[in-house]
Amino acid sequence: MSAADSDSDCIFCKIAAGKIPSRKVYEDEEILAFHDIHPWAPVHFLMVPKAHIPSLAHVGAGHAGMLGRMMTLAPKLALQEGCRPYPQGGYRVVINTGADGGQEVQHLHIHVFGGPRPWLKG
Ligand code: 5GP
Ligand code: ZN
User: Against a cut of 0.90, is the pTM above it?
Assistant: First the structure.
């Protein structure tokens, strides 16, 4: 990843670069997963591409591989982090997009929520 793929004002770029600490769940060359700082559920982590992509509205055909890898990783990490297996257990996978979608951090991220209910939200 080159510096051009990073936004110096973006909090998730800083987390991906290790400049802001996070509780890491998973990391490879293109993807980082870490616990949400304000969890809504017993399990709540975020998956982000290390490259700065502002939102799901900004993805194109060139991102299909990365998005596919994130989505196939999500169930594995969910179980690793304590979500109970499908179908009695399971998890919720959410990508907030834009203001109407409730997106607060403008760096594409996948929320994974799980664990026994009730949850704080969702
Ligand atoms: P959004 O509303 O954009 O979909 O979700 C952003 C999420 O990022 C929120 O759930 C919020 O708690 C989380 N978040 C914001 N800043 C930080 C941070 O510095 N560290 C971590 N681990 N999570 C953060
Ligand atoms: Zn970013």
Answer: yes
Please give the angle made by the CA atoms of 39, 50 and 28, to the nearest 5 degrees: 90
Distance 51 CA to ligand 2 centre (A): 7
Nearest-ligand number for the alpha carbon of 58: 2
Could you report how far apart the first and last alpha carbons of the chain are, in Å?
A: 34
Q: Which ligand is nearest to the Cα of residue 101, counting in written order?
A: 1
Distance CA 79, CA 58 (A): 29
Residues in the chain, pLDDT under 70: none
Distance CA 61, CA 63 (A): 5
